[in-house]
From TrEMBL:
It is found in: Cell membrane. It comes from the Bacteria. InterPro entries: Poly_Biosynth_Transport. The keyword rRNA processing does not apply. One of its GO terms (cellular component) is plasma membrane. The chain crosses the membrane at residues 31-53, 84-106, 112-133, 249-266, 287-305, 325-345, 357-373, 379-398. Belongs to the polysaccharide synthase family. The keyword Transmembrane applies. PANTHER family: LIPOPOLYSACCHARIDE BIOSYNTHESIS PROTEIN WZXC, PST FAMILY PREDICTED COLANIC ACID TRANSPORTER. This is PST family polysaccharide export protein.
């Protein structure tokens, strides 16, 4: 990891992290204070529907482009684009069809939120796949500029809509504008531009790697959305809003830095592994030691300051979320370390290991959550997630240290 202002310097990743996550924090905390838990929960249901559909249809192609031994040709990028656009269109249509069902199941009242969210996968699928080539080549300065511009438009538009009385729709309106800008900028900023004519062949060599990305996405769907589905279905949007805000705040303060850093580590580990596998293994060990020390320190501080933090940032109406926040701090700390492990395992071509770890996490979740929910309710779900994350992390750590 090198400082400086060269296009591949980690400085740009850190700047992107600081700016993007800061803008996301401003957006959701301000809207949470303006609109309250019920509105946040309603938006959460719409975004939950998008997450489910996108995870079930994940192609793994962006990660395969970054990890592959050879850079993709222009024709191969055309096939990637065709696949991603088709996937986005199918997901959008599926969400439009499912909107009335989601509205009834999660007590939303109107289906327009889910219908608006249906446009997100299509807009994302229309981005130029040369964006993933830029990540592969570690052009972090260009990537950071696009991501920061997208987040700025999203934040500003969402707040303007919220203050003008748009309610929960303001969050989705901001997201749509931001994603539209990002897709447009990927075509303007990156080369080579893939051909627009539909192309369905030429990327079969990505399938072996991408299928494990898809498997991980499906399993992670269960892991990341199961608790929200249970809370939203049984307790309604207001309780889901409190649950999601405590999780999101813990993520913003702890896990997002590691997740964003993994965007730098994945192509960096991949480049190191292609040049010298032993050096890549030594590098990931150093990152794990540094990450573990930082996570422990931050978790202790955040758990101690939980109650005044919620009162100051969100207001007293959010105090019931404090006990959940203290658990999510632990969960997000584990998630931060797992993000480093996943970046390394995928970089060396071992995407199967993270998929196996996710499957183990599902088994733990199924075994623990029914008893934990019966005994402690939503608190039990959160602790069940902790047990699953610890299991997954230990398996990936074993694969990292003792398997080649």
């Amino acid at each position: 990891m090198r400082a400086g202002l060269s296009p591949s310097a980690a400085t740009w990743v850190l700047a992107q992290q600081f700016a993007v996550r800061g803008l996301v924090a401003i957006k959701f905390l301000a809207i949470g204070r303006i609109l309250g838990p019920a509105a946040i929960g309603s938006v959460g249901v719409a975004l939950l529907a998008v997450a489910i559909a996108e995870s079930m249809s994940d192609t793994g192609l962006p990660q395969a482009v970054v990890q592959g031994e050879d850079a993709p040709t222009r024709d191969e990028l055309g096939a990637v684009l065709t696949t991603l656009v088709a996937r986005g269109l199918c997901v959008a249509l599926l969400l439009l069809i499912a909107a009335p069902f989601m509205t009834a199941q999660f007590h939303l009242g109107r289906s327009l939120l889910v219908q608006m969210a249906a446009a997100l996968p299509l807009v994302r699928g229309m981005a130029s796949p040369s964006y993933y080539v830029a990540q592969r080549e570690r052009r972090f300065a260009n990537v950071a500029a696009i991501e920061i511009g997208t987040a700025l438009l999203d934040c500003c538009a969402s707040l303007v809509f919220a203050l003008s009385g748009a309610g929960a729709y303001s969050v989705l309106a901001g997201l749509l504008l931001g994603e539209s800008l990002k897709s447009a900028l990927t075509w303007l900023a990156f080369a080579p531009r893939p051909p627009l004519a539909p192309r369905w062949s030429g990327i079969g060599h990505y399938v072996g790697f991408s299928r494990w990305i898809w498997a991980s996405s499906v399993v992670n769907l269960v892991l990341n959305q199961f608790d929200k589905i249970v809370v939203g279905k049984m307790l309604g949007p207001a309780q889901l809003g409190a649950y999601q805000m405590s999780s999101r705040l813990a993520q913003l303060l702890l896990a997002d830095a590691a997740i964003a850093l993994a965007q730098y580590l994945f192509p960096t580990f991949a480049a190191r592994h292609r040049a010298d596998a032993n050096e890549a293994a030594r590098l990931v060990k150093r990152w794990l030691v540094l990450g573990a020390c930082a996570v422990v320190l931050l978790a202790i501080v955040l758990r101690a300051l939980a109650s005044p933090l919620f009162t100051w940032v969100l207001g007293p109406q959010w105090q019931p979320a404090v006990p959940l926040f203290r658990i999510f701090v632990v969960n997000m700390g584990l998630g931060a370390l797992i993000a480093v492990l996943v970046a390394y395992l995928r970089a060396r071509g071992d995407a199967r290991a993270s998929a196996q770890a996710s499957a183990m996490q599902v088994v733990v979740l199924i075994a623990v959550v029914p008893w934990a929910v019966h005994r402690w309710g939503a608190i039990g779900i959160a602790w069940g997630m902790t047990a699953g994350l610890a299991t997954a992390g230990l398996w990936m750590l074993y694969r990292t240290l003792f398997s080649r």
